[in-house]
Amino acid sequence: MYLIGLTGGIASGKSTVARRLVEHGAVHIDADELARRVVQPGKPALAAIVEGFGQGILDHDGTLDRQKLAEIVFNDDEARERLNAIVHPAVRELTTRLLGKIEGEDPDAVVVYDVPLLVEAAVDHPFDLIVVTSAPKRTQVKRLVEERGFDPNQARARVDAQVDNTERVAVADVVIDTDGSMAHTMSQVDALWHRIKQERARA
């Protein structure tokens, strides 16, 4: 199995890059989706979150009200650390199980693990390659406003709240510049896939 860690700031093009890799034949794992799965009703992580943050973070149907929880932890570092201490280990355990299943089914699989908080959460799965998507802050803000309907101030706050991109680039094996045209982004991903196939053929 060949494991790619894909990371980058909000609205920096991770989904676009992941989709292109899947088109080439990679298997996609989305850390955000796994984070939603581990806090579903009945899961130990949700029980721990309710214990730590109170019944008020539950919706009327017993599911997690992610918006309420986000409002609590967004400007409170200590609360965010407590939440991460519950969610991150649960996501890691689920990821490890999924990777084992994928490898069991296809030992030659190329897996792209899309993990926005790879740097912040010190995710340390045995990656063969770390890929970082990179776009200037103004582009990220513009995308959040135009594509996701964010208020401009809210968009800037979301971008500024994340780790500075220099920290991500410092751990990258490959940086994909997503500030240009879609064709420019795709050509970089295609070149990356070609490089991976060549490396694996030589291995």
Which CATH first-tier class of the largest domain would you pick? Alpha Beta
Overall geometry: globular
Strand order of the largest sheet: 2-3-1-4-5
CATH superfamily of the largest domain: P-loop containing nucleotide triphosphate hydrolases
Strand count, sense and barrel status of the largest sheet are: 5 strands, parallel
Q: In angstroms, what separates the terminal alpha carbons?
A: 12 Å
Identify low-pLDDT runs. none
**Count of domain modules:** 2
N-to-C SSE string, H for helix and E for strand: EHEHHHHEEHHHEH
CATH topology annotation of the largest domain: Rossmann fold
Count, helices: 9
Query: Using only CA atoms, what is the Rg?
Result: 18 Å
What's the mean pLDDT score?
A: 91
What is the strand content?
A: 5-15%
- Report the structural category: alpha/beta
Strand element count: 5
CATH architectural group of the largest domain:
3-Layer(aba) Sandwich
Q: Helicity, in percent?
A: 55-70%
Enzyme class: transferase
Family: Belongs to the CoaE family.
Pathway: Cofactor biosynthesis; coenzyme A biosynthesis; CoA from (R)-pantothenate: step 5/5
Keywords: ATP-binding, Coenzyme A biosynthesis, Cytoplasm, Kinase, Nucleotide-binding, Transferase
